[in-house]
Amino acid sequence: MEHITEPARPLPVITTVDVCVLGGSCTGVFAAIRAARMGCRVALVERLNCFGGTATAGMVNIWHSIHDTRFETQIIAGLTTETVERLERRQACIRRERNANAGFILNTEELKIELDEMVREHDIVPFLHTMAVAPIRVGERLSHVVIENKDGRQAIAARIFIDATGDGDLAAACAIPFIIEAHPQPPTTCARISGLQGLHIPTLWNRHRDEFAVPEDSGWNCEIPGSDTVRMHADTHVFGVDLSRADHLTFAEMEGRRLTRALMDMVRRHEPDRAQALCLMACASLIGIRETRRFSAVHRLTEAEVLHGVRFDDAIANGSYRVDVHHPRGGGYLFRYLDGTEVSITAAGRVHGRWRAEIAEDPTFYQIPYRCLLHEAVPNLIMSGRMIAADQPAFGAIRVMVNTNQTGEAAGVAAALACAGDCDPLAIDPQVLRHSLAQGGSIML
Ligand SMILES: Cc1cc2nc3c(=O)[nH]c(=O)nc-3n(C[C@H](O)[C@H](O)[C@H](O)COP(=O)(O)OP(=O)(O)OC[C@H]3O[C@@H](n4cnc5c(N)ncnc54)[C@H](O)[C@@H]3O)c2cc1C
Prior knowledge:
Blueprint: E1 13-22, H1 26-37, E2 42-45, E3 62-63, H2 78-88, E4 93-95, E5 104-106, H3 108-121, E6 125-127, E7 131-138, E8 141-149, E9 152-163, H4 169-173, E10 178-179, E11 191-194, H5 201-208, E12 220-224, E13 227-234, H6 246-270, E14 279-283, E15 294-295, H7 303-307, E16 315-319, E17 323-326, E18 333-336, E19 341-346, E20 349-354, E21 366-369, E22 381-383, H8 392-398, H9 401-421, H10 430-439
Parallel strand pairs: 1-2, 1-9, 2-6, 9-22
Antiparallel strand pairs: 3-5, 4-5, 7-8, 8-9, 10-15, 11-13, 11-14, 12-13, 16-21, 17-18, 18-19, 19-20
Helix pairs in contact: 1-9, 9-10
Bound molecules: flavin-adenine dinucleotide.
């Protein structure tokens, strides 16, 4: 490949903050808020036109249970429950008690606006339509991050940086080791569609898919608060892509929309009675990415630690969502539960089994240790969200938003403690971190 050399040029340092958060999903927004509440000046950089990431731009509108698997103990609170309560005041959230599949169903357009409000209330310096493109390091430490937006190429200076980009763009640029699985969980273009209520889409899809040149598949869809007719559809997958690559990302965005159109056309042709009511209201402005890079860290969370409910002295998050790995082809999922059971779901049906023998007492929740967020190679960088260190099945559990939200909050509090103590995040006493998280509304068990 031919190369050219860009001429060197000075970059304006447009702001100097204590904490700079890259990526503005709930992970990033919650990190920014927790740091701001502890007195930090915080910048928040998001490449899209809104905060919320996969939940808003990607339209994914389910937050899972905040209780243990028996629904006896609440294990998650903090900004997850604060945000839910704010949405409930706007009738923008349905709360489902004792439901492991969907604890909260959100109107994610309302969430978008709520996150704007929360960023404003905390005097966070926001940058939308702004891409974090490169780190600047002095020795091992990050001194600045280079951003690009309508004003061109600029830099933000900070003491602590939080990578909440999902793909871990900053961590990758700092050469923190990562893996991308040969078969990462496939992405989905979500869509809001009216007129499909009650239709079993996998049956229709797999019966007629050859006519539309689409792969075997099986997904899900979900109601939207306040609407009787429009549902959020995640019925398709784009298989065999690595969305850390620009060319695959471009292909997947276009392919995801083609599959959405194929679904519409299939219904029109084979369910003609529905044609009148059928309407494609919106395609997500961002393909929903399940899995790209997963980074190394001081500790890598394993499936065994998740499914056996191992407790950690430096736990910063609790979860009860099952291991959920989407099949790399053919659609559907493998679920593994803390009670030792498992089920594989495909268009052909469900196959139930056990991944371990029965034991006297099943664990009811698992934990994420702080060490999964830190790598020694970059002492003033904290990772958060789906990029943190976990093996693929453990990742299948921790990747849901009630969990990623907590990693954001922990990153924000850790960053604030590091600023206050003039130390690196690795030097923070985990008990002080846990105490500060609890003081700010998180549940520490
Ligand atoms: C189709 C689908 C369905 C799912 N269903 C559920 C579900 O029902 N419930 C659930 O809880 N979870 C679900 N998940 C998983 C969950 O949504 C994600 O794992 C989670 O949202 C990841 O959060 P994150 O903050 O790590 O990353 P993301 O949500 O990917 O957020 C990363 C943010 O960083 C921004 N960004 C990226 N790179 C840069 C850059 N260089 N500069 C600036 N900004 C950048 C992005 O625009 C984005 O806003 C689903 C995922 C998918 C794809």
